[in-house]
Fold this protein.
Amino acid sequence: MRCLVVGHLTHDTIVKDGRKTERIGGGAYYSSIALSKFCEVVVLTKVGKDFPVEWLEELESYGISTIIIPSEKSTAYELLYLDEENRQLKLLSKADPFTLDEIPREKFDIILFNPVANEIPPEALSLVKAKNVATDAQGFIRDFENGRVVLNEINGEFLKNAHIVHADANEFQHIKNLNPGDIDVLLISNGAERGVAYYKGEKYVYYPLKIDVADPTGAGDVFLASFAYFYMDCPFIQALKRANAFTATFLERRTIDFPIAEAMEKAKFVKVEKANTDEETSAR
């Protein structure tokens, strides 16, 4: 199975408990390493000459191929953690956005768009060829005021060109003109709390496994990527349970170097229920 992930790899400075650490980040990074557990993965990204080569070599160690389009700068963020669930993002620099001509027309099994700073043109979702097109909404709704990340209200009609869309509960409130029935699957996560998922317009609620999480960074990206894979071969509810369990195992280990059987065993304990009401979303 061949998978393409599009988005900026980022240079992240993590500030937590008074300590600073620097590492590779971005939705494309976390989604690609999750998919590399199952698929042949290609990442299309833009970084500057300042981007540490050892971080790119880390991707290669997972068997991930990278298509790097040179940029004057790399996208860099400061992530200030206020507590385990809440953080403040500050954009330090931004790589060049993708042009439509740079989006591959080659066919893949899965194409996953995971922007972090408005680097992907919304029209790109209608141009690609894949059995499954998945996207995270976060990078489409972000704006920046003196580097601080703010969320803009957007017209979400372009998201109808995807099969799978993920947003967290706060982000989804900023997306207009997108109804759950417009796409195959809509995933609305809420950190460690109960999430909502729509399958062909039918609403379900799911309950993430309760685990001790020291670092939640990348959770939504791993969740979306693993769901996109499992959804290729599994019924919706089974894919949702497996994606939750895979994400929980990643968050516990902070690596994908664990037996798949371990995550699949945990999937038995993920609770999913079909809902009769529509509390979390309404027609937009």
In short: The CA atoms of residues 1 and 39 lie 5 Å apart. The longest helix spans residues 236-253.
